[in-house]
Design brief:
By secondary structure, this protein is an alpha/beta fold. It folds into two domains: about 5-325, TIM Barrel, CATH 3.20.20; about 335-430, Immunoglobulin-like, CATH 2.60.40.1180. Helix content is about 20%, strand content about 20%. It has helices at about 35-40, 45-55, 95-105, 135-145, 185-200, 220-225, 245-255, 280-295, 310-315, 320-325; strands spanning about 30-35, 65-70, 110-115, 145-150, 205-210, 225-230, 230-235, 240, 245, 265-270, 300, 335-340, 355-360, 365-370, 380-385, 395-400, 405-415, 415-420, 425-430. The chain has an eight-stranded parallel beta sheet. A hairpin with a 2-residue loop joins strand 8 (about 240) and strand 9. The longest helix has 14 residues, at about 185-200. The chain is globular and about 75 Å long. It starts with about 30 loop residues before the first strand and ends in a 13-residue tail after the last strand. The site of one 2-acetamido-2-deoxy-beta-D-glucopyranose (NAG) has 8 residues, from loops. One of its GO terms (molecular function) is alpha-galactosidase activity. InterPro entries: Aldolase_TIM, GH, Glyco_hydro_27, Glyco_hydro_27/36_CS, Glyco_hydro_b, Melibiase_C.
């Protein structure tokens, strides 16, 4: 990653977003990662097959470009080369080395990601990079790596933060007023690897898998391209399973922290579980629509070799209009909640019924997302006067378009109402009747 101009100016670097000169990281990353379905059962074959499937299923053409290796790729016993200290790939899983996987992936016009950890060991107990940042960044660069997911397990006691902030634990985060979380040990651990990546003669997208700790949103902007904001995702609608969370608790946190996302700076709501576990069709749809609306990285986590046979899932992951919203070249902000619904005031935190009425903008118009958190189908109404970018035009006729089907629904005055199935999300685009943007100067922030 070469230096951007602002970073040559010393202190100014702390404020600058990390946008690589070639544009890497400006928009949310799109790709595939092995963890959600394969965990440690990975091999070169898994990744080269995924790369071919991304091409064959048309997903590459839609923008999915990163093929990301998650934990368990290195040799658990040998760990590092006794002479060079370099990480050693597991010879059973990658008999030709990571280099060969990178060659295959690159030959298909795709990029290869890898996984590391800002502690002594990864979450799976493989060698971590703490204290080896420069060497590991150079090794990744030498192998042809394009993306690093950097996890946060096994932090030794001398690196534990003076003040702890864990988003799931409201009692944490008792730092003195004005405390700069960018000076925390967590920020230092992540910045050391970020600096090491920037010294390499290769652009490596940097994904901080820091689970929202140490208020990463306040320093992630200058450290990496995206940062995890919460614990791991789990393919369930609500609730929690060990340290992993269903969709609604994550959307709830997003409703309270959406504004930290913009170009080159992305809240990461974790990899997609679309197609995994026992979500319903509607829950799969809500998951994808909301991750697109939030401008989260879109990292598929379901096996691709069977995806051609799972047409409804492939259709969801291939929805051109939702992807276009996520990847909009002009408007970088996440959609914002404009009304909580379920009779709650704005700003209410509710892990089962998070904010239900969202609005965002793109080059094509104003987009409204209506999330039904109820266990029954409900009528949901987008009242134009309630929607900040439309309130001035609330008495005009407006054209409502369904992003799911790609079809216009019709023109409406004052409001548009539809039935939303249980746990489904309506994704609407609103323009003037002649298809023009109703308020191009508006952005959620
Ligand atoms: C990231 O930093 C840049 C430069 O200071 C700033 O313009 C931008 O608003 C920041 N982005 C977010 C999401 O905070
Ligand atoms: C591991 O993956 C291989 C092939 O990818 C598969 O045949 C095998 O069943 C998997 N093992 C487990 C325990 O999931
Ligand atoms: C360690 O690195 C040396 C020097 O590059 C190399 O000759 C040797 O094969 C490596 N050993 C292992 C176990 O990879
Ligand atoms: C940096 O990478 C470019 C393109 O791969 C290569 O041509 C150049 O020789 C490299 N420079 C150094 C110093 O390694
Ligand atoms: C939604 O995804 C789940 C996996 O979470 C899958 O079992 C289910 O069949 C999907 N729904 C449909 C209709 O494809
Ligand atoms: C529209 O909503 C915005 C944001 O809530 C508010 O500042 C503005 O005054 C409203 N305009 C009208 C015409 O109601």
């Amino acid at each position: 990653m070469a230096l951007v101009a602002g970073q040559l100016l010393g202190l100014a670097s702390l404020a600058a977003a990390l946008v690589s000169p070639d544009g890497t990281g400006r928009l949310p990353a799109m790709g595939w990662n092995s963890w959600n379905e394969y965990e440690c059962n990975i091999s070169e074959d898994v990744f080269t097959t995924v790369a071919r499937q991304l091409v064959d299923l048309g997903l590459k053409d839609l923008g999915y470009e990163y093929v990301n290796i998650d934990d368990c790729w290195s040799d658990k016993e040998l760990r590092r080369n006794a002479t060079t200290n370099e990480l050693i790939p597991d010879a059973n899983k990658f008999p030709r080395g990571i280099v060969k996987t990178a060659e295959v992936v690159h030959s298909l016009g795709l990029k290869l990601g890898i996984y590391g950890d800002a502690g002594t060991d990864t979450c799976g107990g493989y060698a971590g990079s703490l204290g080896y940042e420069e060497l590991d960044a150079a090794t990744f660069s030498k192998w042809g790596i394009d993306y690093l997911k950097y996890d946060n397990c096994n932090v030794p006691s001398e690196w534990v933060d003076e003040y702890e902030y864990i988003p799931e634990e409201p009692e944490s985060g008792r730092a003195p007023p004005g405390y700069d979380w960018g000076t925390s040990n967590t920020a230092k651990r992540y910045r050391t690897m970020g600096d090491a990546l920037q010294k390499q003669n290769r652009t490596i997208q940097y994904s901080l898998c820091v689970w929202g700790h140490a208020r990463v949103q306040e320093w992630g902007n200058s450290t990496g391209h995206s940062w995890r904001m919460w614990g791991d995702i789990f393919p369930a609608w609500k609730g929690k399973e060990k340290w992993s969370w269903g969709l609604m608790p994550i959307v709830n946190q997003a409703s309270l922290t959406w504004e930290w996302t913009d170009f080159g700076a992305h809240n990461d709501w974790d990899m997609l579980e679309v197609g995994n576990g026992d979500l319903t069709l509607e829950e799969n749809r809500s998951h994808f629509a909301l991750w697109c609306a939030l401008k989260s990285p879109l990292i598929i986590g379901t096996p691709l070799d069977t995806l051609g046979l799972r047409k409804p899932i492939l259709d969801i992951l291939s929805n051109r209009e939702l992807i276009d919203f996520n990847q909009d070249p002009v408007y970088g902000a996440s959609a914002m909640p404009y009304k909580w619904g379920n009779d709650r005031p704005a700003g209410t935190s509710d892990m089962e019924h998070p904010a239900a009425f969202w609005v965002g903008t793109s080059v094509k118009g104003i987009h409204v997302f209506l999330l039904n958190t109820q266990d029954v189908a409900v009528q949901m109404r987008a009242v134009f006067a309630e929607i900040p970018p439309l309130n001035a035009t609330a008495s005009e006729e407006l054209l409502v378009h369904d992003m799911w089907t790609g079809e216009d629904i019709g023109t409406f005055k004052e409001y548009f109402e539809l039935e939303v199935k249980t746990h489904d999300t309506a994704a609407l685009r609103i323009t003037t009747v002649d298809g023009k943007h109703p308020n191009p100067n508006w952005s959620p922030k």
